[in-house]
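Hey all, quick one. A colleague (J.T.) asked me to put the protoporphyrin IX containing FE job into the tracker so the inputs and the C-alpha cells live in one place instead of scattered across chat threads. No bug as far as I know, just bookkeeping. Sequence used:
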Amino acid sequence: MSNWETIFFWITLIAYTLAAGGYIYAFVFKNPRFLPKMTWIISAGFITHNIAIGARYAAQGHLPWAGDYESAMMGGWFIIGGTLYVAWRNKALQSLAVVTAPLVVILMGYGFMRNPELTPMAASLKTYWLYIHVYFAQLAFGAYALAAAAGVLYLLKRRNAAQGAPNAAFERFPSLDRLDELIFRYIVFGFITDTIMIAAGAIWAKDLWGSYWSWDPVETWSLVSWLIYGISIHLRVTFGWREKRLAWLAIIALSTVIITFFGVNFVVDTSMHFFNVR
Amino acid sequence: MFNKIYKYLGSTRFTLLLISLLAVMFLAGLWIPQESLLNQQLSAQWEAKSPKVFAILRVLHFTTIYTSPIIIALWFLFFLNLSLVMWQRLPLIRRRIELPDPKRSDPENAPGFSFKKSYPLPAETSGSDVIGFLKKRGFAVSGDQQVFCAVRNRFAPIAFGLFHLSFFLILLGGLTSVYSKFYGVLELAQGEVFNGELERYKPLGMMPKIGSPPNVSFVIKSIRPEAKGNTPTALKVTLADGQGQLHNIDINRPYTTDSSTFVLKDVGPAPLFIVKDPTGKELDGAFVKLKVMNGSQDNFAMAGFDFHVHFYPDYAVNNGAAFSRTKEFNNPVFTVAVDRKQMPVGQGTLAPNGSLSFAGGYRLVIKEMPLWVRFSVIKEHGLPILYAGFAISSLALIWRLIFFRREIIGAVREQGGERRLLVAGKSEYYKSLAEDEFGELFDGMPEYLRQRPKADAG
Ligand code: HEM
C-alpha cells in the first residue's frame, strides 16, 4: 500500500465505522434525527474511498480487482455506491445503510487483514473480459447486498410495527409494501449482472485455461448462487412469495455470494481460480 | 394417472424441484473430491483410507459427479420440463402482448390497476395533449382523446421465452463442444516445428467423438517471459504458421486456428546440455525441456550419469543457500547434483555458456539455452452457439426485468363542472413502486402541458 492509500483507506474505514455506530445508536436509543447526518458521514467516507482507490491505481498502474483486499475494497465501493445512489433517488432509502455500512466495515476490515500489498498486473489478468467479469460480479454483489439490507429492514420494521411501543426510527424506512418490492427489484438487478458476470467469466476462461467451464469450485459456487437467485425470482413471480419469506430468502441467499467471493478457500482447497494472484 | 404425470412434468413446481436438486448435486460435487480436480496420488490415498465410501461413490459416479447419470437425468428432465412449460405459456404470452381495447376500458372500474387518480385538465388542453405527453414518454397509445390506452414495453413478455430459450442454445453449444472435443498437451521449444503429429501430444487427453484432431503446422520463433518481481506479467511467444505468417500470442491470448485453441500454460528452460570426458571429447548432448520453474527439481540422464537440477532465474545466495531474488530472468543459474549408479560424483552451479566439472574431469556444458512452452490444445465446435446463448440470455433478462410492461388507461370526463383526466395504471412485478412511478409521471404533466402551447406558438 502506498502512504496515501493507507491514509485514505483508514479515513474511509473510520467514517464508515462512525456511521455504522451512529445508525446503531439511532435505533437503540430511538433517535431518528441522527440518521440524515450519518448519510453525510458515509458520503464523506465514499469520497475518501475513491481517493484511496485512485492512490492504488496510481501506484499500481491498474484498477484494483485481485486478491481479498482489492475485492473487499471494490466490493465495499459498489455496496456503498449503490446505497448512496438509491438514497439520492429516494430519501427514505437512506436507511438501507443501517445494514450495508456495518457489512462494508466488516468486509474492508477483513480485506485489510489479508493481503493489501501492491502487485503488478499478472499476465493471467490482462484481458478486457476480466474487467467485465470482475466488475459485473461486484455490481451483482452490491445489488444482492442491497436486497439483503432491504430484507433486514423489512423484518425489523414489521416486528417493530407489531410491538406495543413502536420505535420512531423505523418511520424513516420506506413502507413495508415498498420494501418488499425493493427486495425483488435489487435481486433482479443483481441477477442480470450476475448472468453477465458468469458469461464473461466463461469466455475469459476459454482464453486462459482453454475451457469455458471446468466445474472449478468458484465456478460451481457462483452457479449455485445464481440458481438460488433464479429460484427466488421464480418463487416471487410464479408462486407469489413475498414479504417475510422473500426477505429471509434475500438474506440467506447473500451468504452463498459471500462464500463465492471470500469463503471458497475455506470450504475447499483445490480451486484453480485465483482471486489471489499466483 | 398418465395425465397426472404429464401435468406434473409440465408444472413450475417441478421446475423448482429440478433447479434445487441440480444445485444440491453441484454442491455435493464440492464436498466429494472430484477426479477432475484431484491428482492420481491423492485419489489413491483417499481410496486406501476409506475403500467402502469410495466404492459406493464410484458406483453412483459421484467422483465424476458433473457427468454422472443422475445429473444427466436431471438435465434431461430440466429441458423436458422447460419445453412443456414454454409450450403451455405460449397462449398466455400472446394474450399478454395484446393491445388493450380502449372501447372496453374504464379507468374508474379497471380491475388489477393499482394506481388510480384524477387530475384537473387546464383550459385549452385536451385528451390529445395527454396522448402526446404519453407518447413522448415512450408509450404506445390507442384510442381517441376521450378514452385511450397506453402501453410501454408491450413486447417484454416475449423476452421471458427468449431467456429460457437461450438455455437450449447453451445446451446445444455445450453438447456440440463435448462431442467434438479434442484435448492434448504439447511441449515445444524455441525453433521446434510442429506439424500436428498426434504422437507429440503428451498426454493425448481426449480424441473427438465427432470431427478430427487439429490440423495445424507452425514453428515457435521466440519465447520471452516477462516478470516484475515475483509476478509473471507476460509470456510473449511468436510463432510462424505453415504459410509463414507470424502470430504473437501471450497468456490470455491463445493461438486459434482450425477451431483449435493453443493456450499457453507454462514456460521453462530447454538447455542444450553436452557431456564431455576428461579429454574434452563430446560424449553425449541433447536439448532437455526442464520442468524447474517455481523451484521444483527435474532430473535427466546423459552419458551414464544422472543429473538433478534446480533453476534460479534471478540467482543469489543467502547464508550459503541458493535462492531466486525474483521471477525475472536476470541471472539464470542452475544448481546441479550428479550421480553415477546412485553415488554422488559432483555438484555445483551452472550458467548458460558455462560448465560444471564432476567425477574427476568430466564436464557438463550448456551450449545454448532456448526456452520451451507448454500448450493446452483444445479443439471444439459449437462455441459460437454457446456464446450466442450467453448474449441472448443477458439481453433477454435486461429486456424482461428492466423494460417490463406498464399500462395506463385514461379518460377525459366532466366532473363537478370541471374537465378532469382520470387515469389508472399498472405494471408488471410492482404495485407500490409502480404507484410512485405513475405518480411522478403525471406530476410532470402540467409542466409539459404548460410548455406545449408556447412551443406551438414559437
Ligand atoms: C425447467 C426450467 C425452467 C422453467 C420451466 C422456467 C419457467 C419459468 C416461468 C413459467 C416463468 C414465469 C414467466 C412469467 O410469468 O412471466 C419464469 C420466469 C423466470 N425464470 Fe424461469 N424457468 C426455468 C428455469 C430457469 C432458470 C434455470 C433460471 C435462472 C437461474 C430462470 C430464471 C427465471 C427468471 C429470471 C424469470 C423472471 C423473468 C420473467 O418474469 O419472465 N428460470 N420461468
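Adding what we noticed when we looked at it: The helical segments of chain A are 3-28, 35-60, 67-89, 97-114, 128-162, 176-208, 217-239, 243-267. Residues 267-278 of chain A have pLDDT under 50 and may be disordered.
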